[in-house]
TrEMBL record:
It is found in: Cytoplasm, Cytosol; Nucleus. GO terms for cellular component: cytosol; nucleus. Functions as a two-component phosphorelay mediators between cytokinin sensor histidine kinases and response regulators (B-type ARRs). Plays an important role in propagating cytokinin signal transduction. Histidine-containing phosphotransfer domain (HPt) contains an active histidine that mediates the phosphotransfer. This is Histidine-containing phosphotransfer protein. It comes from Corchorus capsularis (Jute). The keyword rRNA processing does not apply.
Length: 126
């Protein structure tokens, strides 16, 4: 392929990433920070993102309190980071947010029920 074809392919591919909501305006802003003095800036920042994400996911997975569904999604997220799979990371990130929100809501409800039982003079069944 010649340079013009490769450039067209890159433009089309980037457009598809925006159309699929894999990338957004924040990535555009990141690209605008790149210049001829640091032509690998975006690649370096994205690589750091994957490294930091993997580390944070490892920490989160270790710190989980028995929230099995959150743990499974964190493991999948970590795997996507290791593979540098951007689309997979974005999907897993949304799943982590969803599962975290779900387990938080469910546990808050459980704790409220426990408080009501105690306030009514009962004991928490095991």
């Amino acid at each position: 392929m010649d340079v013009v074809q490769l450039q067209r392919q890159l433009v089309d591919y980037k457009a598809s990433l925006y159309n699929e909501a894999i990338l957004d305006e924040q990535f555009t802003q990141l690209q605008e920070l790149q210049d001829e003095n640091n032509p690998d800036f975006v690649v370096e920042v994205v690589s750091l993102f994957f490294e930091d994400s993997e580390r944070l996911l490892n920490e989160l997975t270790k710190a989980l309190i028995g929230a099995q569904r959150v743990q499974k999604v964190c493991i999948a997220f970590r795997n996507c980071c290791e593979e540098q799979n951007v689309q997979g990371c974005l999907i897993c990130l949304q799943q982590v947010k969803n599962e975290y929100s779900l387990v938080k809501t469910k546990l808050e409800t459980m704790f409220k029920l426990e408080q009501q039982i105690l306030a009514a003079g009962g004991s928490i069944p095991v």
